[in-house]
């Protein structure tokens, strides 16, 4: 509704841009398959990726409709993007070793923390801060747990790479938390 009013007044249709970006992301593997034989996606791969992209897009739309606050909207997209990237990277290549490494299943716990925390908090900005911080802590804990439990060797993990990638995801969760915090403060 808000997007339609903005278009009528000459504004930007962010929904159209978002779904166009999602469609472009879905086409990237098609282009990569033309360029190199190393990328060989089948129909199941495209279906799974479409499901992940669609889920992230719908989550972003749902959260953006919860408030008109620009900080809340930005936080929603950052959080949905972090979840999408985490799911995609983990399923496609695996963050610890390869995609077949069981330690990677722990990253689904990070997504569960974010989703369940947001739902329990009623998607309110102040409580979304807690859900995103909890997801960041979960993200930090996964490589530590995997190594401590002996589920993955340091050689398999490539500890510097995993720490760098985890640090990037932690940063995304914390940026989302900071934006939700700003939204909560402006609502007071």
TrEMBL record:
Keywords: Membrane, Transmembrane, Transmembrane helix. The chain crosses the membrane at residues 12-34, 46-64, 71-93, 105-125, 132-154, 160-180. This is Uncharacterized protein.
